[in-house]
Amino acid sequence: MRWLRSRQLALLCSLAGTSAAVGVVRVIGNKARLFKAGQPLVYAGAVHTVQQPPAAGGVVDVTDGAGEPIGWGVWNGASLYRVRLLALAHEGLEHRCVATLLRARLREAAQRREACGLPSERTSAFRLVNGEGDRLSGLTVDLFGRVAVAVSSALWLELRREAVEAALLALPDVDAVVWRRSEARLKQDGWQEEVVEEADGKGDVKGDVKGEVEVKENGLSFLVAPVLGQKSGFYCDQRDNRAMFAEFCEGKRMLDLFCYSGGFSLAAARAGASACVGVDSSEFAISAALGNAQLNGLSHSCEFTKSDVIAFLKETEEGSFDLVVCDPPKLAPSVKDLTRATRKYKQINGLAMRALKKGGLMLSCTCSAAMTQSGTFVKMLHEAATAQGRTITVLKTTGAAADHVVHPCCPENNYLTAVLIHVG
After folding, report:
1. d(Cα 299, Cα 276) in Å, to the nearest integer?
2. Which of 20, 88, 253, 356 has its CA 20 to 30 A from that of 40?
3. Residues that are catalytic
4. Among residues 292, 324, 285, which one has the least CA distance to residue 308?
5. Are 378 and 397 in contact (CB under 8 A)?
6. Is residue 419 within 8 Å of residue 244, measured between CB atoms?
7. How far are the Cα atoms of 128, 201, 344 from residue 147, in angstroms, in the given order?
8. Where are the beta strands (DSSP E) in 298-339?
9. Helices (H) and strands (E) in the chain — how many of each?
10. Edge-to-edge order in the sheet of strand 302-306
11. What is the spatial distance between Cα 119 and Cα 101, in angstroms, rounded to a whole number?
12. Which residues of the chain have pLDDT under 50?
C-alpha cells in the first residue's frame, strides 16, 4: 500500500485547506460562460489544459480561456466530471478551504429549508442537502429528527468524510450522522473501497443512533431505519405528492404499488380511504409499512402484501380499485437504459391501469432522471393505456417536494416525475 500512503501525503495539504500549490484547470473559451453562471460540473470535454494536476480529490482553480478566474473546486481525472466546482471567484471563498466551505454551504442549505417551514411540528423528515442544488456536488443529506443521513456519490466526499461529518454535527439541529454510499455512482467516480477504509477508518455512524428513529411527515408518524433502509431510509421527495393524492381518497379503495414503508397508503387511510392495499417485493419494506400503520392506528384500513408487483397485478381482477399509485424504483439508471426501462414502465403501468375502475385516478411516478429528462413519460403512459384499451387524461404533473432544490444552471438534477391521470 506504499502508493496509497504517497497519495494520502499528496492530498494532505488540500484536505486540510492549507495554502499549498494548487493545480489550474483552464476550460475551453466558449464553455466558460456556462461555469461562470454556476454550472458546477466541468465535463472532460470542457477542459482545455490542466497545469499541476493534483491527485484525485485535490483542489484546483478553474479559469476561462484568457486565464481569468472562474472559481475553484475538486479535481478527478478518472471521473466524467473532471472538476466539481465548489465556489465561484466572486464569493469570497478564494482561500480554498474545503472545511470552511462545507460549514458555509450547510448553513445556507439549512436556511433554505427554514424558509420552507422545515422542520416543523408536523414534519421532521426532510432533505437538508440536495447535491448540486445546494452547491455540494455528490452529497445528499436527509434529516430525520436530529439524525442526519449523508449519502455520498463522489470521491472528494469520501476523502473528506470526517470534515463533512464535523460540519453536519456543528449544525444546531444535528446530534448524529449516518454515512451511506451510492456505490454504483462512486465507482464511476473512481472510488476504491480499500483506499477509503485506510484513509478515514471504518464505521457508518457518529453519535447515538438507535435502530429506528421516529419522525413526522404531515402529522403522520413513521419509523425510519437510517442504517438499514433503502437509500437514506425514507423517501422525503414524495411528501407533497402523498398529501395531494390523499385528497381524492375518502371512501375509496386504493392500491399502493411499490409501497415501501407505506407513505401513500397511510396518507390515504388517514384521509378516509375505505381500504388501502400496499404491495412491495421487500420483506423489510412490508414489515416497516405494517409497523407504521400500527403506529398511527390505521391497521384497520391498511393491508400490505409481499409480492412481485407484476405477478400481483396479473392475478388482480380488472377494475378492483378506485385509485392506484405506481411508484417503482429507478428503472433507467442512465440514458442507455431508456429503451429497456420504457418497456418495463409500459408493462407495469398498463397492468396498473387494468386494475383500476374506469373513471378512476392513478398517480404514476418515475424517479429515473433519464426518463424525466427524456420528456417521454406521459407518452409512455398514453401508449400503456392504449394497449389496455383504456384512455387517459393528464390532470397534473409534479416533481419532488420543495426541499429537493435544483440549481437553475443544473436542471438535469430534476429526477422525479409524478403524473396524476384520469383513466377511462
Report:
1. 10
2. 20
3. 367
4. 285
5. yes
6. no
7. 11, 21, 36
8. 302-306, 321-326
9. 14, 20
10. 302-306, 275-280, 253-257, 321-326, 356-366, 417-423, 392-398
11. 23
12. 1-19, 194-203
Nine-digit cell string for 381: 403512459
Q: Which grid coordinates are listed for 8?
A: 494520502
Kind plus residue range of the DSSP H or E element containing 282: none
HEC profile for 50-61? Answer: EECCCCCCCEEE
Whether the Cβ atoms of residue 274 and residue 252 lie closer than 8 Å to each other: yes
Peptide bond into 119 cis (omega under 30): yes
Sign of CA dihedral 264, 265, 271, 273: positive
* Cell numbers linked to 67: 486565464
- Measured CA to CA, the distance from residue 329 to residue 5 in angstroms comes to 40
Give the whole-angstrom CA distance, residue 62 versus residue 75.
10
Note the pLDDT tens digit of each residue in 78-130: 999 999 999 999 887 667 899 999 999 999 999 999 999 999 999 999 999 99
Which amino acid belongs to residue 26?
R
Question: Which amino acid, 216?
Answer: K
* DSSP codes of every residue in 147-182: EEEEEE-SHHHHTTHHHHHHHHHTSTT-SEEEEEE-
Q: Note the pTM of the prediction, 2 decimals.
A: 0.91
The pLDDT, as a whole number, for residue 178 is 96
For residue 317, the 8-state DSSP code is P
Q: For residue 174, give every residue at least 6 positions away whose Cβ sits within 8 Å of its Cβ, in sequence order, or none.
A: 143, 146, 147, 148, 168
Q: How many residues does the chain have?
A: 424
Helix, strand, coil tally for the chain in percent (to 5): 35, 25, 35
185-218 burial code (b ≥16 CB/10 A, e <16): ebebbbbeeebbeebbeeeeebeebeebbebbbb
Residue 378 phi, psi dihedral angles, 5° rounding: -65, -40
State how far the alpha carbon of 354 is from the alpha carbons of 42, 153, 256, 362, 420, in Å: 46, 38, 14, 11, 16
Contact between residue 151 and residue 140 where contact means Cβ atoms under 8 Å apart: yes
User: What value, to the nearest 5°, has the Cα angle with vertex 265 and ends 264 and 271?
Assistant: 95
Q: Would you say 331 and 317 are in contact if contact means Cβ atoms under 8 Å apart? A: no
Cell of 157: 466526499
Least Cα distance to 209 among 230, 232, 188, 190 occurs for 232
